[in-house]
Amino acid sequence: MRSLCNNLSKDVCEVKNNLNLLLEISNELNSNDISLDNVLSMLQRQLKADVIIISVLNRKKGLIYVEGAYGVSGKDISHITYTPGEGVIGKVIKDGTTVIVPCICDSKEFSNKMGLPFKINDLDVSFLCIPLIDKNEVIGALSIHKVYHGVPNFKENMQLLSIVGSMIARAVRRRQKNREAIEELQKENLILKEAITQHAFSSIVGNSGKLQEVFSLIKSVAPTQTTVLIRGESGVGKELIADALHYSSKRSNKPFIKVNCAALPDNLIESELFGHEKGSFTGANNQRIGRFEAADGGTIFLDEFGDIPLSTQVKLLRVIQQKEIERIGSTKSIKVDVRIICATNKNLEEMISNGIFREDLYYRINVFPLYIPALRERLHDIPTLVDHFIEKYNKINNGNIRRITASAIDALLVYHWPGNIRELENCIERCCILSSDGVIHTHNLPPTIQNALSSQTEHSGTLDTILGKIEKQILQDALISTKGNMAKAASSLGITERMMGLRIRKYLIDPKRFKVQNIMFDEKKTINYPQFVNM
Question: What CATH architecture is 2-182?
Answer without folding.
Answer: 2-Layer Sandwich (3.30)
